[in-house]
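Slide 14.
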Amino acid sequence: MTDTTTYRTLDVPGATIAYDVRGPLPTADGRPPLVLIGQPMDASGFGTLATYLTDRTVVTYDPRGLGRSTRTDGTDRQDPRQQAEDLHALVTELGTGPVELFGSSGGAVTGLAWVTAYPDDVATLVAHEPPLVHLLPDAERALAADARVSAAYAERGWGAGMAAFIVMTSWEGEFPEDFLAELPDPAQFGMPTEDDGTRDDPLLSDASKAVSGYEPDVDALRASQTRIVLAAGEESLAIITGRATQSLADLLGTTVEVFPGGHGGFLGDEFGMPGKPEEFAARLREVLGA
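Slide 15: predicted structure.
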């Protein structure tokens, strides 16, 4: 298959969604398109992974208000249920029937909301490290840590907030009671120590609270006709997102499929934190073909 990419837009209530189609529609081999979604990451983070999936028609998109997608609904709130509506409209526009879906981080949360609302849209969902903090056995302490990250951002700016976020998301095992009682120095992570006054970061602001605060409908997921595969990176099984994935697997009575790398194992050098994209693509292909 030639690696041709078509840029498209779709108007939905309150937003214009930008998306890319790599490969033909209808698909050349009769297999459903493979949709890749993140949150708050947009389509740009899947560029390298897509180059290792050129045997498939691959669709990526920018969630409303992020990347190239715009919104006119008067809010910056990233709600998985609303994004499920956007993706339902997108797949309806594609006109190909059920898709296969890889969702990572907040994209995995959106994927869970999508198959809950529209199980006929998705044949297989691979949910990679959804940050479902409420499901953790130490949820109260994890939420307290997250609140300290938010406070650091609100009070001291992006550098302080991101440094605290890095410490929280790289912590292995359950959180102690006093976690982040002392905030890290942003400089040790190469972050700015000065506050630029902005508070609109889609990851650190309140815009994404609906993502980490999403509570999946376990009964609906169990009953769904969608095949749901929960996945986590070999390097991130013990951190907050890997542990949350295991908690969801326990509730659904399933196991966690292990993928190469960590939370961003599919990344190339898009954000200067390369994972293992070639190995990741091979594992994704294996899981989808199982």
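Speaker note: The chain is about 35% helix and 20% strand.
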